[in-house]
Specification:
mainly alpha, two-stranded antiparallel sheet, 61% helix, elongated
């Protein structure tokens, strides 16, 4: 089995705040995450308008998903966070989308195990679990745009951070400058 190692010391990765590069798909992914945030805000508001208990598990629904007061408030907070990430953009939005995507998937697994138990304090149903999985995967894909690929361009800072030896070969040393 082949392994990939870098010689030398590891360096801290510093990225420009304007990255990933503004490609038109970057805007699509940011808007997609923002719209997902607005959907969560609408879901939360509709859940709160039914005057259900904060931890009620009576099977109240909004937009086809089970809800209670706690899930509604949590949905509004996460939805607003996604919308703010869309507005800020750049690495903040990318990292936020990846982190929230992982949290949605973990949340789906957690409440899949809690279905039908008294510990299901957010009143999740199987439709909520499936929604959590789908939203998590979509947010992770949105967040990984421009960061994870086998064919990133060589001027991409994520590629340069993974290949420091190529950057050292490309930049002439001070000794080479003195010879010229």
């Amino acid at each position: 089995m082949a392994s990939h190692t870098h010689s030398g010391t590891r360096r801290r990765i510093l990225f420009d705040e304007a990255l990933p590069v503004d490609h038109r798909l970057n805007r699509v992914y940011r808007i997609g995450a923002g719209l997902m945030g607005l959907f969560l805000v609408a879901f939360g508001i509709l859940g709160l308008t039914d005057n259900i208990g904060f931890f009620d598990t009576g099977g109240n629904t909004a937009i086809g998903l089970n809800t209670n007061g706690a899930l509604s408030v949590l949905s509004i907070c996460v939805g607003l966070l996604l919308f703010v990430g869309m507005v800020i953009g750049g690495n903040f939005a990318s990292t936020l989308n990846m982190v929230l995507g992982v949290l949605f998937i973990l949340n789906g697994f957690l409440f899949l195990g809690l279905l039908g138990t008294d510990s299901n304090f957010l009143a999740f149903g199987i439709q909520n679990v499936l929604f959590s999985f789908v939203v998590g995967l979509v947010l992770m894909a949105f967040g990984m745009y421009g960061r994870v690929s086998t064919n990133l361009p060589h001027d991409n800072p994520y590629w340069r951070a993974r290949h420091p030896e190529a950057e050292q070969r490309a930049t002439p040393s001070a000794a080479d400058d003195q010879v010229r």
